Amino acid sequence: xxxxxxxxxxxxxxxxxxxxxxxxxxxxxxxxxxxxxxxxxxxxxxxxxxxxxxxxxxxxxxxxxxxxxxxxxxxxxxxxxxxxxxxxxxxxxxxxxxxxxxxxxxxxxxxxxxxxxxxxxxxxxxxxxxxxxxxxxxxxxxxxxxxxxxxxxxxxxxxxxxxxxxxxxxxxxxxxxxxxxxxxxxxxxxxxxxxxxxxxxxxxxxxxxxxxxxxxxxxxxxxxxxxxxxxxxxxxxxxxxxxxxxxxxxxxxxxxxxxxxxxxxxxxxxxxxxxxxxxxxxxxxxxxxxxxxxxxxxxxxxxxxxxxxxxxxxxxxxxxxxxxxxxxxxxxxxxxxxxxxxxxxxxxxxxxxxxxxxxxxxxxxxxxxxxxxxxxxxxxx
Length: 381
Fold this sequence. Notes:
CATH superfamily of the largest domain: Type I PLP-dependent aspartate aminotransferase-like (Major domain)
Helix content: 25-40%
Distance between the termini: 26 Å
Number of domains: 2
Strand content: 5-15%
Radius of gyration: 21 Å
Number of helices: 13
Number of strands: 14
CATH topology of the largest domain: Aspartate Aminotransferase, domain 2
């Protein structure tokens, strides 16, 4: 059996090695390392894949969120609603721009922001909502957009974990993740479903004026060279990464199908166990399984059970991860906002029970059988 990886980017690369190597060599030979033609080619390809008007490339997913918020002209003290149960980048950027993060609890099934609680958190200072499509499943965007329209709020989709997912509206219409809100932001970190060979990110919008402003923000606030109309930053997608991503984009649907197949195997092997809750799949969202995250609960000490499984799997050379053990509202960086005492019972409940299993495009049945067998063996103890 091949060694089990949490994410096996090396084996994935081997399957497209010739294409990738040739593309990288072409960039090196052209010496157009910044803003070379492959950058625009990739943006055009991604816009076509997502059916969105504008794709603005940038250096990483965190920059994508920052550029989006800067382009909206949010002012210090403005409140931004977002879940606490997410990677820190989502909320870190809010504080970085002197905005005020307001944490909203999540749905215990989908792990995404709960629209019923979202509207209750809105105040006169609220200016934007940042829903997170966590682990590969989309937040309930139809409800979120109705709330945003009602209260005249901006919506920035954090789509770092669900690129390629489809959202099905109540009228049957479908739309890609990251294209429903006013702005979508994503990361191409190597472990993502569409991963670069380094840091990379992008922003999406159908709004021409927002697109122009985000391009300026990402390029030192320039409208034309050496004319800086607004305060911006320096965030670029380099040409080599764009060339690689353009190749991998052609395989994205294939990659998603492979992840779904691995998830189906996990479901079939684990869903019948009383201590395990396998991932919920919402009817409105295609779950693209950036992570395969289960809940563990023995009715006694879920933290000990979960952490014990994490250690047991490691002993058998099976990686697993806990995303995320400390939610945003309990991080020291947000002490100034006095949020530690905020009641987010579902978030706190999840942090004690979640564990993510190996999930990537190269998992085979032998590996999956070994992983699930060891999980079931541990739970017999």
